Every structure is written in C-alpha cells, then in structure tokens.
Amino acid sequence: MASFVDRVVLHVSGGTGGHGCVSVKREKFKPLGGPDGGNGGNGGDVILRVSSQTTTLLDYHHAPHRHATNGGPGMGDWRGGKNGETLVLPVPDGTVVKTKDGDVLADLVGEGTEYIAAAGGQGGLGNAALSSQKRRAPGFALLGIEGDSSDIVLELKSIADIALVGFPSAGKSSLIAAMSAARPKIADYPFTTLIPNLGVVQAGEVRFTIADVPGLIEGASEGKGLGHNFLRHVERCAALVHVLDCGTLESDRDPLSDLAIIEAELDKYAVDMSYAGVDGEVVPLNERPKLVVLNKVDLPDGKDMAEFVRPDLEARGYRVFEVSATSHEGLRPLSFAMAEIVKAARDAVEIAPPKVAAPVLRPRAVNESGFRIRREEKNLEPLFRVLGEKPVRWVKQTDFTNEEAIGFLADRLAKLGVENELFKVGAKPGDTVVIGEDDGVVFDWEPTMMAGAELLATPRGTDIRVADIGDRPTRAQKREEQVERREAKAAARAELEAERKAGIWTESASRRRAQPIKESNLDNGDDD
Asked: Which are the contacts of 145, defined by CB distance < 8 A and separation ≥ 6?
C-alpha cells in the first residue's frame, strides 16, 4: 500500500444554497401581516489550506471526492436558513494547484496559505426580501444555486534549499542521515529510496533543508526508473549537489560518466514555467549553483578514484568535496559550502524588490449590457443563445412550477434589455431562445410579455401573462395544424376531381334562382 503520494486528482464541489421561503405573516387581529419568508443559507466553500502537520496527499488519494455541506432553506417569521459549513482540506507546504490541462491555479507556500477550490452556491431570497412597494405580497421565492464543481490536480513540490541527485545507491540517503536527524531507509540494493526524503541541517547560523531524489538513471526523461517522477520536488531548490559513487563495483561506470548522464537527464527535464518564485523567474535546474560530492572515500578504491577524477572535475569549474557518509569525513566543509549558497540565495531574494503587477481598474463600459446573444442554427431553424452571468444565474434561481416566478424572471430579463436585443439580432415570435450553454433552459420566445406583473390583479403564485402563454399553441402545434389544413385541402381537391371525371355535376346557384316560383308556394298566402 502506498504511504507517500505527491500527485492526486481531486474532485471538489461547493455546497448548494438553500431555497428561499414563501410565507405570509398570520397573527390574530392582524389579517394583513405581509410576507415573512426568510432567505436560504449559502452553501459551504471548499478551501485548501497549508498545514505543517500534513506531509503527503495520501488522504486525497483514497478519498478524492470532497463536497461541502449545503445551506439550509429559509423559514417563516423572517428566519434565514443556516449557512453550509466550510470544508477545509489541509495540504502540505509547497502544494501546487492545477487544472487538468496543466494551468496553474495557485502555488500554496507558507503556513496557513489558503485557496478556495470550490465556492458554495448562493442561497435564494425569500418572499419577504422580494417584496416592494409595487409587489407587496410575492407568492414565490428564489431557489438556491448549486455550488461550483471542478476537478483539480494537486502536485506536491517539497520546500528544500539543497537537492541531492545521483545514481541509485550513490549514498544520498546515507548522506542525509549523516548530516541531519532524518532517518531514511538505507539498504545495499538499488532503488532503496522510493520517496523524496527531507533533512534539516544546521551550519553555523544558517539552517537549511536538503532533499534527495530517488535515483536517476539514463533514460529517466523517457520514464525509466523512478527519479524523473520526483524531480518536481527539487524545482524550488537553490542549488544541486551531485553525489557521485567512487566505490561502485560496476566496471562500466565511473564518476565522470555518471555525472555526464545525470547532467543530460537534468537538461531534458522541463521545469514548470507556468509559475514563478518570489523574484518572478524560474531558473532551469542545470543553470543553478552546483556542488560535486565524491562519496565513499572511506573505501580504498573509493579514495583512489576520488583523487583520480578530482582534477578533471575542478578543471570543469566544479567545487569538489571528498566525503564519507559512513565515517563522516568531509561532511563539515560540505555543510558550510551548502550554507554559503543558501545564504546567498536568500539574500538575493531579500534585496531584490518584489515584482508586483500594477493593479488595473477596468470599470464596466457605459454601453455594456452584461450579456450577449449568439445566433446559432439547429435542425435548419434559428436558435438564439443568451450568455451572461446575470441571465444564467436568474434562470437557476427561478421556480418554473410557479407562474409568478416565471413572470418575475421575464420582468428581470426585459429590464436588462434581453428582449430588445433579441429584436435587434432578428429573432421572431416563436423562435427558440436558450439561456446558458449546453445545459441551458430552452424557451419558445413570446415577446408579448410586458413588464408590470405587480399591477396585475391575480392571486399569489399566478401570472395572467404566463397563463395566456400556456393557452397559446406551440410551434409544433402550429406546424401540425398547418399540415392538417393542407391535407384537408388536398383531399377536397381530389374528391372534386373524382366527381368531375365520373360525370357528376351539381347545379349552380344562379340556375336555381332563374327557375319560376311554383303555384303551391302561392297558395300559402292570405285571402283577401
């Protein structure tokens, strides 16, 4: 079973807002108490918060679906619904939040840093909040809105100052154990380290953190071995330390060839450039300060190998240290060299002025309506799609089983200017109008719904305009009636044509008028 997880896909969703309440105050001797329905509570948020007590993303690997609590519904007597509880998810320091496409949403560094992963839905207003001088007793309330829902990727990038890189069994874990209080797993077989290990080192007045990466091998950039998967943990490091094995028993390996292979793999690793550090820049791994450690000099062959390759490494410009993790030889000068690099990096960050983007205020344009209409075509018929934050939210808040609520929505859309804009883009009565994207609400547009429902003398919860629309035939019904009329006309023409061919003719009305009046009709008159 996995005990360390540094990348997970988390499915988060905020709580749904509670529905508003429809209620009328009823009290003895006060028959006109008025509306007293309360508002629904807001849904809870899902928040990611950095916690020093969390070191892995293992909990989210086992339970990747997280949902905040919903808001409570409003109640009578002006009682509002309870707000949903915020769900706080602790994450390790250095967690990067991304979308599935790789876009960085947040870089969580520092104890207590927070990011709202999914906002809760807004609660619906009760009829008390919807009442006005013109609409004194609304018979409807607004519905609560669902919270945000998204799939995010959490990647852990450890906060370390120095990174140890090298081949498997080069002695990186032994070096951390010898220089700090960390106790990583150590064994005499390759790929012993399966997770990044961190250790804190004190060198004089400087305290810093070192991390080792599971062994890199040739082809790591193509997915071989384990190290390439964990290189993200050294992206925040100020310097790299190459740990070279001078006591290897493999005949085809030597410190110089190992260094060349590791350098080539680091060159192929693409540092995540979508986020920047404090100074606003991201430096590739191979362009950062480096030290070379020749390990295992306590062995006879290791000492000889270190003395052989050291001049060549120094000629290339590397600072070389001969150490032994077993006998602790050379560890003190190495720790002070690391501290010198860390202190220089920290001083540079403190001296460099922070790059803060100037705030840009963009007020809404005078002619900006807050929505737009896109003309589409479906089944060879025009379709008009209304897009905008307000219309979409209003539709979600509407109870379509309540006529008065539908009329209220029509008034809001007309006041926003949606109806006038539909006329401008060429919409005709009966055309299909969709508010929202693929999951939007579909209407058969009837532009005869004038505003002013509060002036209509109808019972609460009803709207005479909506009732009239319900009695009108739909486009499909009109099309069926037209087809029936055409079929009836065609049948009548066929019947007349059949009678003509059969020789059956009817008398014309003019001939009947030309016939003389019969005597029997005259006998019916009165005698003088």
From this structure: 16, 17, 121, 122, 124, 393, 396, 397
DSSP states along 131-172: --SS-SS-S--PPPPPPPEEEEEEEE----SEEEE-STTSSH
Mean per-residue pLDDT for 278-291? 69
CA 82 to CA 77: how far, in whole Å?
15
The tokens for 282 are: 């991201």
| H or E stretch at 115 | strand 114-118
How far is 153 from 145, CA to CA, in rounded Å? 25
Q: Residue 292 pairs with which residues in a beta bridge?
A: 242, 320
Calpha distance 212→272 (Å, rounded): 19
Give the residue from 200, 198, 229, 203 showing the smallest Cα distance to 215.
Answer: 229
Q: What are phi and psi of 278, to 5 degrees?
A: -65, -35
Q: Which amino acid is at 237?
A: C
CA atoms within 13 A on the CB side of 76: 9
Calculate what percentage of the chain has a pLDDT beyond 90. 19
Strand 432-435 to 381-387 pairing: parallel
Which helix or strand (DSSP H or E) is residue 196 part of?
A: none
* Interatomic CA distance for residues 6 and 438, integer angstroms: 35
Residue 55 — pLDDT band, cuts 50, 70, 90? confident
Q: pTM to 2 decimals?
A: 0.69
Among the listed residues 15, 23, 18, the one whose alpha carbon sits nearest the alpha carbon of residue 142: 18
